[in-house]
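Supplementary Note 2. Why include the ligand at all?

Several targets in our set were suspected to adopt different conformations when bound, so apo predictions alone were not considered sufficient. For every target with a known small-molecule partner we therefore ran a joint prediction. The input for adenosine-5'-diphosphate is given below.
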Amino acid sequence: MKEENIVKRQLIKGMLLNFIAFSLIFSTLGCIIYSQVSSSLYSSSNQELLNNKNRTAIMQDFQINKNENKLEDLPENFNSNIPDISNNKQKIQKNIQAANPRLMYIFRNKNGEIIEEKGKYDQTYFEQIKFDNTNLDQIYDILVDNQYKYRAVNYKIQQNDEEIYVQILINVDAENDIIMNFSKTLIISIVICIILSLVASYILSKRTLKPIIDSWKKQTEFVQNASHELRTPLTIIQAKQELLLEEPQSKIIDKAKEITISLNETKRLSKLVKDLMVLARADSNKTNLKIEKIDIDNMIRNSAEPFQELANSQKKKFVIDLNYKKEINIDKFKIQQVLVILLDNAIKYTEKDDQIEINTLEKDGKFILEVSDTGIGISEEGINHIFERFYREDKARNRETGGSGLGLSIAYSIINVHGGTIKVEHNKPKGTKFEIKLK
Ligand code: ADP
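The joint prediction is reproduced in token form.
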């Protein structure tokens, strides 16, 4: 599958998952808010209905025990606007509006029929109100005239030997309107939030995927380069050995050239494998440093000595100027390895009469090592990519000099685990300059 397709699929997958998660979160939040708001909005109406159940009960006791009592004898806390239900049917004030103007009382006989009191209300309106005499003491919703919303409760009361029903209704149109508007606003807000979260998740997924894509690209490139680098010497070795087998009678001296090439390629191969292992260890953070206090100027002088001799033999100038003069905590072997890589390159990429220079100094309390040369220099592109694995300025020429483009990557990772930095720049007027900074 193509790289972009995999990335696209991952992006869509990530977005979908985020979308589902955000939708669930926002919907749950919306449901909680909705149920909280609606229950608190209706709670006063519910309370009103339940309070009136108690009042009706007081009223019923009063009627049963004190048949002859008048309304004035009702308990003090009893709302005098509550209908007076006496045992005398004619005296029952039916369908009377209570103190709360939103409350309505409908008195019904045991068959559920309204006990009439003509003229007080529009009778046809009340006849539309459904009544179920099996649904008692439970608050329920009822729609009247297809537009007015009520909450209601039915109670059964005993009138001497007769059972009558009280249906108490409270108008909740206002609450209903508020809930409707609130739900609309809530739904719109949830949808906006989900869309915003989708956009945010797209941007975030892209951002999170970027380093993964980059390192994946690097990894693929690395594997391709590594297999290519490994294949080249292997092909040469195979070809040379096949050639040797073609003439099994011939002497080694006659085939010395082929044998030498095979040997060189074998060496190259084993160096390459060693370098790859060093980088693999660095990648998995398995580089164990053996930190010790080192007189670094002294160590550099000793390590540079063979290179100085080599440079002199090639008629190149070699300058060593060491001014740090302190001890430093480093892994001696690893820093030596870095110095060897830099000096090896300096020798490789300089010509007769060029100069190679090593400087050490202290700057802002830090150790600085500069390795510069007046050699062929590095291109502008090279300055940006030189520490990348397998990067070589001129691949064909570098193969001749034995380089695989891993030396500077190893140097970089060593300095990195030391907590230092390594930089490259053009040396004025020509050549290359590396600067290493350690704490
Ligand atoms: P190699 O084993 O090929 O030298 P390096 O990682 O050490 O690998 O170097 C990468 C490339 O950087 C080299 O192939 C070379 O083109 C360039 N390079 C490194 N050091 C120098 C230098 N001192 N002068 C010019 N080019 C250099």
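Residues 46 and 319 are 97 Å apart (CA to CA). Residues 341, 345-346, 349, 373, 375-378, 386, 391-393, 398, 403-408, 432 surround adenosine-5'-diphosphate (CB under 6 Å). Comparable summaries for the other entries are listed in the accompanying table.
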